[in-house]
Write the C-alpha cells for this entry.
Amino acid sequence: MSYTDELKSALTSRTNGIYLISWEEDRVEKTLRTLFTSLFPEGKVYVWESLRGIVDEKDQVVSPVKDPREALLFFDGAEEKSLLIFKDFHLFLQNDPRLVRSVRELLFRLRRSLKYLVFTSPFLQIPQEWKKEVEVIEALLPPREELQGLLQQMVSLYSKKGVKFSLTDEEMEETVRALQGMTFEEAKRLLSRLFHGVKEVDSSLVVQVQGQKKQVIIKESVLEYFPDRIPLSEVGGLGNLKDWLTKRKGAFSPEARRFGLDKPRGILVMGISGCGKSLSVKAVSALWNLPLFRLDMNLVYSGIGGAPEEAFSRALKLVESLAPAVLWLDEIESGITDKQAEGPNSRILGYFLTWMQEHKSDIFIGATANRIDNLPAEVLRRGRFDQIFFVDLPTNREREEIFRVHLKKRGNDLSRFNVSQLAQITSGWSGAEIEQVIVSAMYEAYAKKRPLQEDDLFAIFGSSYPLSTTMAEQIKKIRSWAHDRAYRASGEIPEV
C-alpha cells in the first residue's frame, strides 16, 4: 500500500490525528490538498508555519499566530471538513508537557469528526502519550514509476528547447534506477542542471546521475558509498566463494525471475582477520555491476543520526530505494547483537530479523564477521543468509596467486620473482599480511632508488610474525566453530 492509499484510508476512517514522516514538505502538502479536496470538495486545508502563522490554500495568512497552542485553538474553532498541517511540530514538543496535553485534548474533541490534524516531520519523534491517538504514516521517496514520468517530462521539455537526446530505452531505464533514492525535487534539480545549456545528452547521463548517489549517501550519515569497483581477479584464492558468486551473476534480472529463481538474500563471510572477507564483499558489486553501500553500526549507535533504531531503520529504507544494490554490514557481530535484553540493541536485532525475512527489494547483504560466536543464534538460522562462508588462511597455491596479484598490481615484473618459493616461506600468513610485506619492501626499494628485489621481501619476512603465530589459539577456536557450521570459501585446506 502506498502512502497515498494509507492517507486516504486514515481520512475516510476518521483518524483525526496523523503523523506524516517525510523530507518532502511540498510534495506531501500537495498530496494532502489533492486527496482531501477530492474527498471533501467543500473542505478547507490550512498550514501552520512558525514564521508566518496559519495560511490557506491560496498561501494567504488567515491567522498570524506563531504559538502552536494558539494554532490549536484556531483549529478547534474552524469549520467542519477541515485539515490543518503542522510543519516541524516535533521541535516544539521538547520539554513542553502542556503542548503535548493540548494536542491530546483537541484530538479527544475531534474524535469521529471531519477535522484532521496532520503533523509533518522528517523524523519520528512522537510523545508516548500520543501513540494511541495518532496514526504514523511514512511518505516514502518517489517510486520508480514517478521518477520515470519525471524523466520523460524533462526530456520532452528540453527537446523542445533544442537539446538532442540519444539515449536507448535501456539507458533511460538505467537513469531512472540511478535517480532512485533522491527526493522528487532533488531528481528534478539534478536533471535540470544536467540538461541546461548542452546540445546533446548521451549515455554519459547514466554515469553523471550515478555520481550523485554519493551526495544522497553523504546526507545519510550512517551510510557510506563505495564507488570504486574491485574485480574478482584481484581477490586471491577463495575459489568456492568466487564460483558461488559467479553462478549468481544476473540473479536480479527479469530473466532469472522468469526462470523461476528466487532472489539471493545475502552471504555471511566469517573467519580469520586479513584473509579477504571485506575484499570479497567489495568484489560482489563489481562482478554483479551493483552499487555498494556500507552501513557503519558504530555510527548507528553514536547518535549522530538520531536514535540508533531510527537511524538503522532509515538507512535500510534508503538502501531499498537505491536498489538493486549490495549492502555491506562490516563486523556485523559488533552491531547486531542481543547483549542487552532491552534497549536499542534488542530493538535493532528484532527489526533486522524482520526486515531480512520480509523485504522484497533487490538488496543483497554482504555481512562480514570476525567473532561469529558473538552473533545471536537467530541471525545464523537457515533462511536468513543464503550461505555462511568460512575464510581460512590461504593455502600454498592461493599464496602464490596473492603474490602475483599484488606484485603485478604495483607494476613489478613477475619474471623476476620466484613466487613458488615466496609462497612456501609465508606458510601461515594471511593475504593482508602478504600485501603489507610487499608494500613495506617497496618502500625500502624506493628509498634506495631501485626496483623491488626478492631480498627486500626476505628482509621483511625475517622481522615479522604472522597472526597464525601470535593468535594461534583464537584461530584454532574459529576453525573449530566453522568446521560443521560453515562452507569453506576455499576448496583447499591450508597447511597451518
The chain has a mean pLDDT of 86. The chain has four domains: 3-138, 144-211, 226-391, 396-427+431-465. The CA atoms of residues 190 and 209 lie 8 Å apart.
